[in-house]
Amino acid sequence: MLAILGGTVYTVSGDIVPNACLLIDQGKFLAVGSRLAIPHDALCLNVTNKVIIPGLIDCHTHLGIAEEAVGTAHIDKNEVNQPICPHLRALDGINPEDRGLEDAYTSGTTTIIVTPGSENVIGGQSIAIKTYGKVIDHMIMRQPAGIKMAFGENPIQMYMKKDRAPSTRMTIAAMIRENLIAALNYEKDLANGKVGRDLKMEALLMLLHGEIPLRAHAHAADDIMTAIRIADEFGLKLTIEHATSAHKIAEELACRSIAATVGPSITARVKVELKDRTYRTPAILHQAGVKIALITDHPFLPVSSLRLEAALAIREGLPETVALRAITLSAAEIIGVSDRVGSIEPGKDADFVILDGPPFAVSTKVEHVFINGIEVSNNN
Fold it and tell me: What are the Amidohydrolase-related domain coordinates in residue numbering (predicted)?
C-alpha cells in the first residue's frame, strides 16, 4: 500500500482536500481524506505544500502513429490511397516507443485517444490507451473508441491532388451516407446468408448500433452542421473534434447534448477553417451548456501543452474548475472511460500527478506521475 501525505488533492469529482492523505492499493485509489488512518505497512511519500490532480486526459492525438524524429517510415496516421477506411485500427499502427508518449506521461498526461488522421473521409478506428507501457496491447483502455470521419478541407485537398473523389463537401457527405446505407444493407444480407464477412461494414455497424461514437473532425460551423445532420439521420452518437468555430452554433450542440473536444488553439490560422480560431471558444461552449474537453492534436501541438491550452481558456473566461474537468473527468466521460479514470475517488485507477504549484500556473512543475499506482516519472 502507498500513502501520499500532506498534499492538496483536487479530486475533480468532489471537493478539494487540503493536507490530505491519499491511499493507494493494488493500482487503485483506496481512500482520500484529511483524517485517514495510515496502515502501519504503508509506504509513505510526503508531499506537503504540493498539489495533486488526476492524470490528465487528451482525447484527440496521433501519438504513436505519427512518430517524432523517425521520418516517413513511421508516419502511419493516414492511408492516403483510400478515402474510405472504417476497418483500419489505430491499434495496429501505434509504436509504444514513440518519444511523444514519453513526453505525454512525463508532463502528466496519463490517458489519451489515438485516432487516425483527417485526410480520409472515413479514417478508421480510434483507441483509448494509457500512455506508459512497453506493449500496446497492455495499455488499452477502450478499443475501438470511435470511428474517425473528416469533414471540410483536409480530404478535399488530399484527393483533388489524386484526381479522385471527394472534391467537394457535398461529396464527402454523400460518401459517408452511401457507406452507412451499404452497412445497413450488408447487415440484412449477412442475416440471410447472402454475403460473407466484410470488415469495413462490420466497423460501420458498430457505429450504427450505437456501440461507439462518430468522432467528426470538423472545424467550420457549416461542416459541424453537416456532421450533425448525418448523425441525426442515422441515429449516431457524435463528438465534434477540433470545433474551431463551434462557438457560432453552440446552441445546436447543446440542445442535442453533443460534446466538443476543442483545439489545438495554440496555432496559426494556416487554413480557411481556422479563420475564426479564438481562445474564447471553450468558455462560450460551456456557457451554452456544451460538455467540452481540450485537446492538443499531437504532434500538431506538443502533448505537453495540454495544461497551457487550459490556462489560455481560463484567461478567456472558462472557470478554472471546468478547465480542470476538461482535461480530466469530462474528457474521460467523452471517451467512455470515466468509470476508471478522470478523478481521484475510491475504486478508480490510481493515475495522478503531483505538482509543485497551482495546476495552471506556467511556472508550475510536474514532479511525480503515477499510472496504475506505479511511479512512471520523477522530475523532482
Answer: 51-373
